[in-house]
Amino acid sequence: MNLDLFNTPPEPWTEPLSPGALVLRQYAIAHTDSLLAGIRAIAAQAPFRRMQTPGGHTMSVAMTNCGTAGWITDCKGYRYSSTDPLSGQAWPAMPADFRSLAQAAALAAGFPGFPPDACLINRYPVGAKMALHQDRDERDLTAPIVSVSLGLPATFLWGGLQRSDKAVKVPLLHGDVVVWGGEARLVFHGIAPLKSGQHPLLGEERLNLTFRQAL
Ligand code: MD3
Ligand code: FE
Questions:
Q1: Ligand 1 nearest atom to the CA of residue 172, by list position
Q2: Does the structure show a pLDDT above 90 at 188?
Q3: Could you give the domains of the chain?
Q4: Degrees, nearest 5: CA angle 47-50-51
């Protein structure tokens, strides 16, 4: 009989979302402390900032990056840059444990040898959202993207290959990892406005890391 219901953290479990997309529930939970320490150090060098879209809007999500490339947007468009436009300096290096977590998750989802060179870090305060979009600024669209969710829960919107395709809602919780590749790589996706709440470690905030092979 198993009476140890409370002391042992659950093993991660997987939920296929659609062909090419696999949710690894709680896969990052044991790495929470090192991820948060890493993000804190990265943000000390390259602060979170709300970027401008080419259409002239300010994003509700604040962003920073680590790695040899970082995703940016401004009035000139979306792209990867090897330097942080705020400082003119290289982005902070990607911590080795960030890279190995992303690589192990990709392998678990059937994408061996994933070499992420960019990690975009998104910070959502309550009410922040991300409109439906495709990620297509990366050079090699056959490489997957690995995402890690921390803090408050979010409703992920999972659409189709056309912007007009109806989106399915998928809850993403603290510690969940999703690997998006193959047929899922160019699917339209977004995040519904973050609902208010209190996370024991992150308070009124959600963080999301996306690991990419950008260059
Ligand atoms: C599916 N971020 O940064 S993570 C993004 O929670 C982004 O901050 C969301 O969409 C967030 O571009 C969603 C899940 C995600 C990330 C990238 C994808 C899903 C994806 C790329 C292709 C397909
Ligand atoms: Fe995206």
A1: 6
A2: yes
A3: 13-212 (2.60.120.590)
A4: 110
